[in-house]
Amino acid sequence: MIREFIKDIIKYIPSQIVSAVVGLISIPIITRLFPPADYGNYILVLSTVSILVTLVGWLDISIIRFYPAYERDKKLDIFYSTALKWLSISIFGISILFLLILVIVKNYISPNLYNLMLIGIGVFICSALFSNLLNFLRAKRLVSWYTNFSVWKSITAIGLGLILVIFFKFGVEGLLLGIILSIILILPRLWGKIVSKITLQKKTSGLLVIEMARFSFPLVAGNLAYWILTLSDRYILEFFRGAWEVGIYSASYAIGEKSILFLVSLFTLSAGPIAMSIWEKEGEEKSRIFNTNLTRYFLLICLPVTIGLSVLAKPILDILTGQEYFMGYTVLPFIALSIFLNGSTIGFGNGLGYFKKTKYIMWPLIIGGLVNIGLNFIFIPKYGYIAAAITTLIGYIVMVGLEIYFSRKFFIWQFPFKSMYKIICASGIMGISIYYLNNAINFSSLINLVLEICVGILIYFLMLFLLREFQTKEIRSARALISKILKLK
Questions:
Q1: Which residues contact 411 (CB under 8 A, 6 or more apart)?
Q2: For residue 69, what are the CA distances in angstroms to 58, 200, 293, 309, 438?
Q3: Is 289 in the same domain as 392?
Q4: Is 373 contained in some domain?
């Protein structure tokens, strides 16, 4: 099944690359169109939408976990009807609740932020529906369709938003309206793809709802704690230091996310459905092998990117942000490492998912989040966004350590330590090399960055080859792929 995983990850690549590239391209545009305070308010709205979507996430998670079993038992009509009914109920209920909260806090936030939050309700409704419907495609492993819809949203959301801002003179709200328009335009096509060949039933399964809730509510609580770990610092920054620092911090955070998180997302998107399918259909031993290989590939790809991004933080911020945002380069290494650590637990999360022990995914997130938010209240008032980045990393370290501890109580698999040591060595040498290269060359910022990335890639793979990390069959596969590409030319 590792071959199937690689095939799926290749199919997911366009959706994640387009999302990352569009995100990275939009950062210099948005940070030059709006000052840090306006950008900070925009990020606060997106962060709030992310929280609300997380609350609907109990269905997201359940779709991936329970689809294989209902497909095996030929009961997909009941599965679809139940999931879609409760999706509608959840979105409606959360929207009304958030509107009431907004009315209550109206006098405690700026009019600007209040108006943006009202638009954010529409963004939430569209985003929650879009996200959950996409997960049906993931569960069915219709990866190409998932990619098509994701690429559409990535491009049109920012494209329509910038059109509203530049040509129709909207403010930051134009970016939010662009997201809504993008999803509304594609939603009928996505809905048709999801429910085709499925007869929706009026009667739904109460037993399935209970089973889904038991499985996923601990994960939702964990995801809310994950929000505390990743997003709460924006609100604390805004309260103690103002929207300006939120904007500085968020621009650097966005670069870290678009660079590392898109790789992490490739692994989680591809691995989740396959991991559960292997567990349900092939058993424990195959699942152990899959987790070992999955973790090795994650380290091979994501660790060097994390180190490279940390070393090249200054030139990256210089190119990708407006001048007012440049000082945020100091937080980029902490953010990159935090996101890497979050992704590194994918195999351990799979192990807990197999046994439906999701509360042990929840508790590490809650404890890590509480550590983070406690440290934020202590250090952000004095040190600002730099403290926010460091405390986020500390929270992730706590979370990762606890998740590994709990996971190994239920499902033990062989962690690829030997490969990890070689990858750390190769990545370290690469990082040192591009650090000195960055100080030695003096072309334009963009040319310098491109050269450093190219040299870094060459050094990294050369070191892996010298350390004999690549297996014989992997070398043969790479040669076959190169030969195939050359023949096509």
A1: 284, 287, 288, 351, 352, 354, 355
A2: 17, 18, 25, 41, 53
A3: yes
A4: yes
Helix axes 206-230, 36-55, angle to 10 degrees: 150
410 and 435 together in one domain: no
Q: Is residue 313 within 8 Å of 333, Cβ to Cβ?
A: yes
**What is the domain count for the chain?**
2
Q: Max alpha carbon distance in the chain (Å)?
A: 69
Structure tokens at 175: 């970016």
Alpha carbon distance 206, 201 (integer Å)? 13
**CA 212 – CA 253 distance, rounded (Å):** 33
Lowest mean pLDDT among 18-22, 178-182, 305-309: 18-22
Task: Output phi, psi for 457, to 5 deg.
Answer: -65, -45
Residue type, 348: F
Distance in angstroms (rounded) separating the CA atoms of residues 226 and 228: 5
Q: What is the DSSP letter of 196?
A: T
Among 388, 415, 442, the domain boundary falls at: 415
Nearest to 324 by CA among 48, 111, 27: 27
The answer to whether residues 302 and 260 touch, using CB atoms and an 8 Å cutoff, is: yes
Considering only CA atoms, which of 138, 113, 137, 134 is closest in space to residue 56?
134
Distance (Å, whole) CA 134 – CA 136: 5
Q: Are residues 86 and 234 in the same domain?
A: yes
Q: Answer yes or no: is 57 within a domain.
A: yes
Query: Distance of alpha carbon 386 from its chain centroid, rounded?
Result: 22
Q: Are 368 and 395 in contact (CB under 8 A)?
A: yes
Domain with 340 in it? 2-415
Rounded to whole angstroms, the Cα distance separating 21 from 11 reads 17
What CA–CA distance (Å, rounded) separates 149 from 468?
A: 40
Q: Is residue 488 part of a domain?
A: no
The token pair that represents 341 in the structure block? 């650590």
Distances (CA, A) of 64 to 139, 216, 335: 5, 11, 28
Q: Are 259 and 305 in contact (CB under 8 A)?
A: yes
Residue with tokens 């530049």: 166
In angstroms, the CA 67 to CA 131 distance is 16
Measured distance CA(212)–CA(209) in Å, rounded: 5
Question: Residue 181 has what pLDDT?
Answer: 97
Sorting pLDDT into bands at 50, 70 and 90, what band is 489? very low
- DSSP class of residue 235? H
What is the average pLDDT score of the chain? 86
Asked if 288 and 423 sit in the same domain, the reply is no
How long is the chain?
A: 489
pLDDT above 90: percentage of residues in the chain: 38
